[in-house]
Design brief:
316 residues; alpha+beta; five-stranded mixed sheet; globular; 12 strands; 12 helices
């Protein structure tokens, strides 16, 4: 399994489509997802990613402090940090709070019809969420992530998927929540892959390390053999570099030394396993590379502030 796939596995996204909206110009809406919007998929997600897919028409979208993004039919835009954003036919007009818009429920899918009667725009809105905490992938993503699906190899699939998702949600068929969750996860993966391919060469951070052929070789091996007693020398060996050259390249791209990354990732995986609640703390300690429960407990407490057992009891 490559490192990106392993990270996505641990992230464990769940999501769905919740809104079919048709606007007519002029219109401007202030939007931000609330945890309650994610029901029945979550009780209390720790991290929410909102997204909008433009079925037809066009719109502008912006978060505070960022340049506006122009979208048209076939474009997908993600808000990886679920920030409040304005969207509309124009952004220099008064925005109405999205929560106050008139809406109707149609067998489970909320529908909105709003605007001044001019040029029409049709969007489908959804979300993804995770019950985990901090995550290197989510922290590395920009505030707004746009994917032009028409230019993507998966463009036709994405378009047909949203059409299917909207129909499933509207029909309220048995198993719809599971279907929409998987579709949302696949859309997120496609957006991240598209962003990764367009990342500037000078960009630093976790995603830059994933794209680098040398660092990604080491990351893939680390993720595949997390319980192994890794040293920097061994990481450098699988990356086909000298120890010093590897450590310098890894730190420059990832923003932290190799062993620090290893420790953080072990805590991410351990937190996921503790959340699942199926394995003993001693078993989890071995799975993430600690030779004793005591050593694992000390490391976990340094990172999370509480011992593994106490952390597990706090998880809803």
């Amino acid at each position: 399994m490559d490192a990106l796939s392993d990270v996505l596995r641990v992230l464990r996204l769940t999501g769905g489509v919740y809104l079919d909206a048709r606007f007519t110009a002029p219109w401007c809406v202030l939007s931000q997802l609330e945890a309650t919007d994610c029901r029945p998929y979550f009780t209390e997600p720790k991290h929410i990613i909102g997204y909008h897919y433009v079925v037809a028409g066009r719109l502008k979208l912006a978060v505070e402090g960022e340049a506006q993004v122009e979208l048209e039919g076939g474009d997908l835009v993600l808000l990886p940090h679920n920030e409040a954003h304005r969207m509309g036919s124009a952004l220099d007009i008064e925005a109405i709070n999205g929560a106050s818009l008139p809406y109707v429920e149609s067998q489970g899918l909320t529908q909105i019809r709003y605007g001044g009667g001019g040029e029409a725009t049709h969007i489908v809105c959804g979300f993804m969420g995770t019950e985990g905490g901090r995550h290197p992938l989510l922290e590395a993503l920009p505030r707004v992530l746009k994917l032009k699906t028409e230019a993507s190899a998966a463009g036709a699939w994405i378009k047909s998927s949203f059409t299917y998702a909207a129909r499933e949600a509207a029909a309220g068929r048995a198993g719809t929540a599971t279907v929409l969750s998987k579709l949302s996860e696949l859309l997120f993966v496609e957006a991240v892959r598209g962003y990764l391919e367009e990342l500037p060469d000078e960009r630093k951070g976790w995603l830059a390390g994933m794209r680098d052929p040398v660092v990604s070789r080491a990351l893939t091996q680390i993720h595949a053999r997390l319980a192994h007693a890794w040293t920097v020398d061994e990481m450098a060996s699988v990356a086909f570099l000298s120890r010093s050259a590897f450590a310098e390249r890894f730190t420059e791209l990832m923003g932290m030394p190799p062993m620090r990354y290893l420790a953080l990732w072990r805590m991410q995986v351990a937190a996921q396993q503790l959340r699942d609640g199926h394995q003993s703390i001693a078993r989890i300690a071995l799975d993430v590379g600690y030779d004793s429960e005591a050593a694992f407990t000390r490391a976990f407490k340094r990172e999370h502030g509480v011992a593994p057992g106490a952390w597990r009891r706090k998880v809803p």
